[in-house]
Amino acid sequence: MRGLDAIFSPESVAIVGASNTPGKVGHDIFANILSGHYQGTLYPVNPKARSILSVKAYPSITEIPDSIDLAIIILPPMASLAAIEEGIRKGIKGFVIVSAGFREVGGEGLEIENRIVALCKEAEVRLVGPNCLGVINPLPTVSLNASFSPRMPAPGNISFISQSGALCTAVLDFAADRDIGFSKFISIGNKADVDELDLLKFFHEDPDTSVIMLYIEELRKGAEFVAAVKEITSGARPTPVLAIKSGRTREGAMAAASHTGALAGRDAVYDAIFKQAGIIRADSVDELFDYANVFSYKQESKLGKRTRILPRGNRVAIVTNAGGPGILATDMTVSSDLVLAKFGKETVADLASHLPSTANIHNPVDVIGDASSERYENALKAVIKDEGVDGALVILTPQSMTDALGTAQAIVRVARGAGKPIICCFMGIFDVSAGVKYLQENGYPVYKFPENAAKAFGVIYRYTHWLERLHLPQFTLTHDKEKAAGVIARYLAQGKTHLDGLDSMDILKSYGFNVLFAQFAKTEDEAVEIAEKMAFPVVMKIVSEQILHKTEVCGVNVGIRSKEEARESFRGIMENAKKFRPDAIVEGVMIQKMAMPGEEIILGMNRTSFGPLLMFGLGGIFVEVFKDVAFRLGPILRNETHRMIREIKGYKLLTGFRGRPIADIEAIERALVGLSDMVANHPEIREMDINPLMVHAEGEGATVADCRIILER
Prior knowledge:
Blueprint: H1 4-8, E1 12-16, H2 25-35, E2 41-45, E3 51-52, E4 55-56, E5 70-73, H3 77-90, E6 94-97, H4 107-123, E7 126-128, E8 134-137, E9 144-147, E10 155-162, H5 165-177, E11 182-187, H6 196-205, E12 211-216, H7 223-234, E13 241-245, H8 259-263, H9 266-277, E14 280-281, H10 285-296, E15 299-300, E16 306-307, E17 315-320, H11 323-335, E18 339-340, H12 345-354, E19 365-366, H13 373-384, E20 391-396, H14 404-415, E21 422-426, H15 433-441, E22 446-447, H16 450-467, H17 481-493, H18 501-510, E23 518-521, H19 524-534, E24 538-543, E25 556-560, H20 563-580, E26 588-593, E27 599-608, E28 611-618, H21 623-626, E29 629-633, H22 638-645, H23 665-681, E30 685-695, E31 702-704, E32 707-711
Parallel strand pairs: 1-2, 1-5, 5-6, 6-7, 10-11, 10-12, 12-13, 13-14, 17-18, 17-19, 17-20, 20-21, 21-22
Antiparallel strand pairs: 3-4, 8-9, 8-11, 15-16, 23-26, 24-25, 24-26, 27-28, 27-30, 28-29, 30-31, 30-32
Helix pairs in contact: 3-4, 6-7, 7-9, 10-16, 11-16, 12-13, 13-14, 14-15, 17-18, 19-20, 22-23
């Protein structure tokens, strides 16, 4: 990426605002670069000092006699603007503004930030910040700690991006405690220019980066982010991206007129973005590091090269010398979309021949507390070659006869060339340290607790599943955009935002949906006449712009089979409306044909700042109670709908569960693609629900029974 090399691997750095006063940011950053053994040339800039920490200082950037790659600016906003202007004249290739007081405070600060960004764009130089921790590159060829964190991390193959500077210092301390190193480390602050997407692309091309960690507070791009990151996580040379997002409980959708609007909170948007982009989401910083750990290590392949080995499937073998940890690992294995592998007869016989009679030779394999390294080796050798095993989890608890180093060496001997991932859990700290160090040096991730190890295995399996996901042929779209646009324009011209049922159905028909035949009745006699002509049984529903959730006012009657029932139904619906919503203007009743039997599902859309957020779930009145729904950011095509449908817990109900007919899942996929195309073509649609969409037996399609569309004026 243009200019980012100058920021991460500069040959010369100017510290503008360097200081001799300990505790000041300008002093600490300069001291950190000096003490970190930076491999380039360092220039302090301070008009009031002859030197900073015994290094000659310069009164301004322009008076530095040599060329400069990177300027770290630690000045108030107006002075920062002047420094940027000087730096651009000097030919500096990249800037990092650490100082605060810009966009985050608004007013003049925002104005100055915008002026700085305009200058940098015109000069085609990159800017990190303002209001950030800084930049760190611990690789020995650079060794740059241009931040106010006193800790230089160990070199490694993880790159870390954070929107929070304060979190960065804690993360660096946390990483040091866990012996985790970094390739690059950056806090982006206000991300006035360089943002997380720029950095994700840069780190993806970085030969020193194997996995990217991301702390997000907010994104400013939606569909663009998804498309770009999907290429990073699943392209020709995929790079795993792990993320933690703060503010999960804040609700970002203000509108709640539809089920989708009520459920589409801020976190649902981010969850959809992460899933579509192939980003692995962590729930805590601790979990984030657990996941990074399993992706950062590379094991020896069958060709003798160090590479990341991913499981072919989700069948796991557990080998342990303690029953309790084995049970904990089993529980978390099952909770992590994994299954316990079932051993073949040869494997069971092999285990029986090498283990004592008190050992458990079925999964999880318990080699008993007095297990030697040889016993571990024989057990692991037996299970890892089983065709029904996709990888192994090895647990060791330190006991008086335990040889942690010998067991680690045995694990490495067995694993070499196995072509299957092996994740280890050596419980404890001091007694197992030699074994842990040996495993890590040879490319095997080690965890202190079995639950963490099992979750990490689940993550690499999910990543395999992402890389090998299906790519289905796309549907041919033959939609009548103009007809739908005409209906929408008519409503907006009248100042109306809530479409009635018949017009909503007309729009859906324009986009390929099969809808139930319906007619509108203003009077009791009209309702009876329409119902009789339509042929019983029919459904009757209240029509009122003020009553959006019809069932809440007892405004829906189904299975009406005679003129008498139709007359009684009309009266009852009108009376219920007056009783529950006396302020509502009731236009009449809609009469529909009864739908064929099928599973009730809901499709919906709520427009967010990122674009249309599409929803799928089981339908009916309980959707907001159970919240068993999946979201995606539109537009989406068939491949994404395929994954979306299978994401909900209730998916089994669509697959012929306990004698139910298998639902027409392809019809749901087609409906979701049609919905995505509709809301992309008509940005005036703010919210909508199709609830229920009656999905019939496989091959018989799906029928819209009810729909609600809300427009934006």
